[in-house]
Inverse folding.
């Protein structure tokens, strides 16, 4: 799945949130969006998911303006609390398969997707009976059941404990490598970005957010986490990423101060 964003801008009334976004995503790429809060990363993800429409420019996915049934995973799990894990998956499957499978076949498929994310033992559990990590696994299983080649993930592990976060990072990497899905992933965490990404897009502080730089990650997958985090190359690359983000923040602050000083009496 190839994606192009061409001169994309977006805003509400007098507030411009994104400006002149030009980006091309390769098929099967794991792309991470980084940047400070308010830089428009999540908004750009919503534009890709067709949950918002750009004010100008266009987003082309596989030579079409938009695509149906894009899989999205949000930070808040977004499961229906009155449905079990398998019923949440079945609901997505019904929409996708449109009567092509029996009820029994739909539940069998749901179990397969839950097993894929190591939740085969929790098919009958309701979201309120599951831990945060389990709920996010179920949300990923539901996203996979949509059948899209594009998976959008908006800070999906931000609220999880460190061990669960690592486990789900490994799971998503495996999905990317095994199923060749194109994944676009939002995070503030430089180490998470390096672990997951083939390339990183750094957004400037907003509003409006712009693309500061597109950076290829120089570490080949699969990555040995312990060896990587101890290497000088990793530390330097991570520090460069953080410096780039901080540079954008400082430049924005200086611009604001200059405007305020210029407006004084």
């Amino acid at each position: 799945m190839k994606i192009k964003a061409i001169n994309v801008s977006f805003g509400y009334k007098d507030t411009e949130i994104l400006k002149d976004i030009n980006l091309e995503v390769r098929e099967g790429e794991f792309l991470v969006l980084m940047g400070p809060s308010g830089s428009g990363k999540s908004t750009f993800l919503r534009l890709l998911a067709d949950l918002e429409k750009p004010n100008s420019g266009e987003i082309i996915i596989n030579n079409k303006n938009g695509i149906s049934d894009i899989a999205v995973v949000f930070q808040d799990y977004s499961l229906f609390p009155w449905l079990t894990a398998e019923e949440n998956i079945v609901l997505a499957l019904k929409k996708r398969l449109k009567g092509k499978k029996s009820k029994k076949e739909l539940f069998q498929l749901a179990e397969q997707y839950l097993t894929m994310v190591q939740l085969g033992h929790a098919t009958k559990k309701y979201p309120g009976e599951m831990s945060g990590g389990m709920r996010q696994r179920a949300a990923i299983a539901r996203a996979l059941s949509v059948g899209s080649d594009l998976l959008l993930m908006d800070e999906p592990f931000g609220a999880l404990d460190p061990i669960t976060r690592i486990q789900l990072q490994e799971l998503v990497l495996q999905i990317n490598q095994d199923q060749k899905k194109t994944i676009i992933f939002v995070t503030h965490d430089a180490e998470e970005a390096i672990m997951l990404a083939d390339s990183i897009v750094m957004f400037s502080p907003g509003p409006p957010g712009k693309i500061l730089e597109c950076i290829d990650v120089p570490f080949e997958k699969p990555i040995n986490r312990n060896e990587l985090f101890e290497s000088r190359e990793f530390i330097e690359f991570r520090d460069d990423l953080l410096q780039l983000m901080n540079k954008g923040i400082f430049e924005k602050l200086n611009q604001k101060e200059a405007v305020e000083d210029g407006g004084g009496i």
